[in-house]
Amino acid sequence: MSGALRVLVVDDQQLLRRGLVMLFGTVEGVDVVAQAAHGAEALAVLRAEEVDVVLADAKMPVMDGSELVRQCARAHPGLPVRVLTTFDEPDVVQGAVAAGAAGFLLKDTSIETLAEAVRAVAEGGLVIDPRVARLAFASSRDEEDESAVLAVLTPTEREVAAMVAEGLTNQEIAARMVLAEGTVKNHVSSLLRKLQASDRTVLALTLYKALHSGHDGNGP
Q1: Virtual CA dihedral for 172, 175, 176, 182, nearest 10 degrees?
Q2: What's the per-residue H, E or C state across the chain?
Q3: What is the largest CA-CA distance in the chain?
Q4: Average pLDDT of each block of 10 consecutive residues along the chain (220 residues)?
Q5: 78: closest CA among 54, 105, 106, 47?
Q6: Which CA distances in Å does 144 have to 65, 66, 136, 194, 195?
Q7: Residue 85 has what pLDDT?
Q8: Global pTM?
C-alpha cells in the first residue's frame, strides 16, 4: 500500500472524476490522492500534495490540459502529466504534444489499460493510443520530411527510435537490446538532437509518424 502510485485526477466533470476514483479503487498499486476541476486548481493541489502522476482531461475551463502540461513542466519538472481526450479534438492533442504530455489515451480506454499507462509513465515511459497519434498528425503538412527523419539516423539509432516510438523506457530498451542503460540514454540524447525534438514525448510522436508514414492507411 505504501508503494502505491499517487495519482491526481483533473477533470471539470465531477461525475467523471468520481468514476475514475471508484475505478482506480479496484486497481492494486494505484491510489488517487487528490482531485481537481481544472489546471489552475491542480497546480494549487500540487503545491501541497505529493503526486507521482497527473491524469488530466484535455478540455477544461480556466486552464486546459495542454496549459497544465506546460505549467507542470516549469513548476514540477519530471512530473508526468497524461492527457485523456476524445476523437474530435485534434487541435487539443497537437497542443498537448507540443507542451510535452507524458502520453495520450482516449476516454473509452479500459481501467486496466488506464492503470498500465499510469504505471508506465510513472517509470518514464510514454503511452500513446495509436488512434490519438493519428489525431496528433492530422494537420501536419510536412509529409515530404517524414522519410528524411529516419535517413539521418544510424542503424542502432533506428532500432532505439522504434522502441522510443513504442513508449519503452531506457531501462526496457537496454534490456531488449542488451546494452547498458547509459548507452541507450546517449542514443536517445542523439535522437533528440538530430530530430530537434524538445523532449521525449515530441520525439516519440515524431518517430511514430516517420515509422508509420510508409503505410497505406488502409490498415487498422
Answers
A1: 80
A2: CCCCEEEEEECCCHHHHHHHHHHHCCCCCEEEEEEECCHHHHHHHHHHCCCCEEEEECCCCCCCHHHHHHHHHHHCCCCCEEEEECCCCHHHHHHHHHHCCCEEEECCCCHHHHHHHHHHHHCCCCEECHHHHHHHCCCCCCHHHHHHHHHCCCHHHHHHHHHHHHCCCHHHHHHHHCCCHHHHHHHHHHHHHHCCCCCHHHHHHHHHHHHHCCCCCCCC
A3: 51
A4: 82 91 91 95 95 92 92 90 78 75 83 87 78 61 56 85 86 92 91 82 79 51
A5: 54
A6: 31, 28, 17, 17, 15
A7: 81
A8: 0.67
C-alpha span between 16 and 101 (Å, rounded):
21
Residue 166: count of CB within 10 angstroms of its CB: 18
- Cα 175 to Cα 154, 169, 179, 212: the distances in Å are 20, 10, 7, 24
User: SS in 3 state form for 129-171?
Assistant: CHHHHHHHCCCCCCHHHHHHHHHCCCHHHHHHHHHHHHCCCHH
CA–CA separation, 26 and 99 (whole Å): 31
Distances (CA, A) of 110 to 20, 59, 106: 11, 20, 10
What's the CA gap between 161 and 171, in Å, rounded?
14
Specify the length of the chain in residues: 220
